Amino acid sequence: MISTSMNRILRALSPTGFRARVLVTVAVAGVFASACDVHGISAPGTVASITVTPNSTLSPTGTQQMVAVGLDADGRVVGISPTWSVAAGGGTISSTGLFTAGNVPGVYANTVVATVGTVSGRATITVIAGPLATITVTPNPATLSVLATQQFVAVGKDAGGNTVAFTPTWTIVAGGGTIDQNGNFTAGAATGTFTNTVQASNSGLKGFATVTVTAGALATITVTPNPANMSINATQQFAAVGKDAAGNVVTIAPTWAVVAGGGAISGTGLFTAGAVSGTYTNTVRASSGGISGFATVVEIGALASITVTPNPVTLPSNTTQQFTAVGKDAGGNVFVISPVWSIVNMPELLMTPPPFTIDHTGEITKTLPPASLPTAVNCCVVLL
């Protein structure tokens, strides 16, 4: 018995026996491994997870091809044909996974979904504002009075209508005033509508606004005629014109008054002189809204005197002299006259031809040389 057992041990420990036992052990292990791997070694299993890429950043209307990869439980790639959808906004996606961004900027977490059966994968989309596409200037139109100011604002937007920050260059292209680089407009002195005159520009894009400049507040009132020369008891229609600080006419309905005597005035500006001649300085007043204008009235009585000038005068032969006659009333106020001119108290007028003549305008002409005449002196002329 001992001999037989020893022989078996020796055979097992021999090289040939050892190799046989190793092969049997490996074979048994392979049987157990095959029994545990239900998929086999080469074929992947069913999809267990889906990975969607990329997590993309897009401008409005921008596109991105999304990719979905399926994996089995062991992480091996499984061919899939996913159903694409958008779960949290941000844009749209086609059946082939082409995503198109919407117009509203934002971070849309896990919005792109690829689904196979009950398994899905997701990706995040970030939508940012696109490049500057339009510039809008406000207010438009703007109405302001002469020399007044208006702050303009320029807003830039992308093609999707999202606000885009930018720095505009401000200019005036059709008159109406001036503007600084902060968009602060100052109206000029001229009234009118200045179409698309305010311009904000950047990178070749432009926005415009129209400005209407109106007359400013009443600043002055001018009363005419000033002075008004008139006879006592006569009438004179006065007019009042209002203007703003820039000289533009402002419509007014003035209140008329006489403040320094000389007569009376109606509500329409018709002045009636009194019976006393004289100069009534700034007596006619037109007022509106605390602003006043004035006119002086010179009232003239009956003609009391006529003064002829120059007096005296010396005339060489064959020369002329223009005389002027000024009428005045008893108070010394100028009285407009149309005098009749003649030469009187001169014996020389009986000579043929007469030594001098005078026409209806008061121009006297001497016709004879000095040797032909004696020296004669009268009130007005010395003849040589």
What do you see in this structure?
- This protein has 384 residues and is mostly beta strands.
- The protein has two helices and 39 strands.
- The strands form twelve sheets. It has a four-stranded mixed β-sheet with strand order 2-10-9-6, with no helix packed on it. Strands 12-20-19-16 form a four-stranded mixed β-sheet, with no helix packed on it. The chain has a four-stranded mixed β-sheet with strand order 22-30-29-26, with no helix packed on it.
- The longest helix is centred in the N-terminal third of the chain and has 22 residues, at 15-36.
- 21% of the residues are buried.
Features:
4-stranded mixed β-sheet, about 10% helix, disordered C terminus, rod-shaped, mainly beta, single chain, 2 helices, about 375 residues, 39 strands
Q: What would a concise description of this structure say?
A:
The protein is mainly beta.
Secondary structure layout:
Elements: H1 2-13, H2 15-36, E1 49-53, E2 56-58, E3 63-65, E4 67-71, E5 77-78, E6 83-86, E7 91-93, E8 98-101, E9 106-116, E10 119-127, E11 134-138, E12 142-145, E13 149-151, E14 153-157, E15 163-164, E16 169-172, E17 177-179, E18 184-187, E19 192-202, E20 205-214, E21 220-224, E22 228-231, E23 235-237, E24 239-243, E25 249-250, E26 255-258, E27 263-265, E28 270-273, E29 278-288, E30 291-300, E31 305-309, E32 313-315, E33 320-322, E34 324-328, E35 334-335, E36 356-358, E37 363-366, E38 376-377, E39 381-383
Parallel strand pairs: 2-10, 12-20, 22-30, 32-39
Antiparallel strand pairs: 1-4, 3-8, 4-5, 6-9, 7-8, 9-10, 11-14, 13-18, 14-15, 16-19, 17-18, 19-20, 21-24, 23-28, 24-25, 26-29, 27-28, 29-30, 31-34, 33-37, 34-35, 36-37, 38-39
